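Please predict the structure of the following assembly.
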Amino acid sequence: MSKDPLIIFDTTLRDGEQSPGASMNRDEKVRIAKALERLRVDVIEAGFPAASPGDFEAVQAVASAVDDCRVCGLARALAQDIDRAGEALKAARQPRIHTFIATSPIHMERKLRMPPDQVVERAVAAVKHARRYTDDVEFSPEDAGRSEEDFLCRIIEAVIAAGATTINIPDTVGYTLPHEFGALIARLIERIPNADRAVFSVHCHNDLGLAVANSLAAVLNGARQVECTINGLGERAGNAALEEVVMAVRTRQDVFPCDTRINTREIVPCSKLVASITGFPVQPNKAIVGANAFAHESGIHQDGVLKHRETYEIMRAEDVGWKANRMVLGKHSGRNAFRTRMKELGIEFDTEEALNEAFARFKELADKKHEIFDEDLQALISEQILEAEAERVKLIALHVCADTGETPKAKVVLKVDSEEKTGEAEGSGVVDATFKAIESILNTGATLLLYSVNAITTGTDAQGEVTVRLEKAGRIVNGQGADTDIVIASAKAYVHAVNRLLSPEARKHPQAADV
Ligand code: KIV
Ligand code: ZN
């Protein structure tokens, strides 16, 4: 018996980006979109075009870059938002507009200040308006998990009649439990007379750690689209993790009446790319993509796995893309080999100049580091993108001194708006001294929320990838830097975060915006 397709709607670039500090620029979004295309997700929600000019351009860029997935733009149930989404998606081969309005009593009364009749009217008008741009229109009753069921039935029936082809049921605040959420989906499909004219979808948040469980319960009760993110990134506690939903369905085909078309071998590379670009590392014990997800520590387990793998393993590490670091290029590799490997990683250069610059960086790295892995190449491109973005402050030089028994010192030279400035400071360690020296020049007054170092590959010559998260006046930004020297990587990450802090682009949050 053939199985139903389960549509995977990835919202890493939209809801995932709503994790405080996880904002991505246009080029980073395109790189992730290309990785999602290799993963074979069905729909990529690329952003919220009305939120800011940056979001608009990013959706436009993703729409042009992607061929094999539907590209979706989010819009409030407002004509001007839908027009922006329609405009941004012009280049998409398969555009989708996703429009939403809140339906729970608390949201309608306290946030929208609208009576239910008006909410239905707005939803219907929004769907009809979106249909002018595309026949692929998704509607979400926001906070459906806390909405009244009769009202959900009424508004959903009306929007399907108006032309919505996907109905997404969001558990916006992560409140529901799997048995209730599954039963809700079954009843909605049963009660709504025109339910057969739309695909039912779910979008679960993880506030109680139940996003994946709720999504799977919904699938068992008739949902045929799941909205999820790589590594479970997303607003507050995040969204359902794509890798967990996909592997649960794939591993338990004895239970699920459907399957996805995901190329599971691309899961780990995609997870690593998202972690590196957003600066949100994956916890080691995270299912599927955590470093320990397939590591056996106990002797009994090791013995069992050696005798027969399936004694303790329900999935194969290689099936989700875990592989030993493979040396891909070295000091003697030429431009063609470099360009070809980059292309395989989904990175193409618009100009010969960009290729030459990346190749020069590669040669520089290959001088310091014998073997170059895919992860190194990804980090190298991140660097190039970040530097192009760094308009106001550039790191020119760094000198640190850390003799045993002496107070560590750092001297930093920065170019600030094309003027070179030097700062010196002492600190409890060389990284602390470096950050203080940078601050002695810039005086940003920002608070350091997070400092983390990750080895990109193995070995003592591995590049360290540093994330710095800064906060100022409620704005949170992440900066990244990579280098074989982790103090230099730290300085680069701090400077990058400062540049983001200084950039005027402020994002408007979709759900927080007034409707
Ligand atoms: O969580 C939510 O309700 C959303 C909607 C916009 C679908 O992200
Ligand atoms: Zn959400």
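The domain at 4-278 is CATH 3.20.20.70 (TIM Barrel). Residues 352-368 form the longest helix (17 residues).
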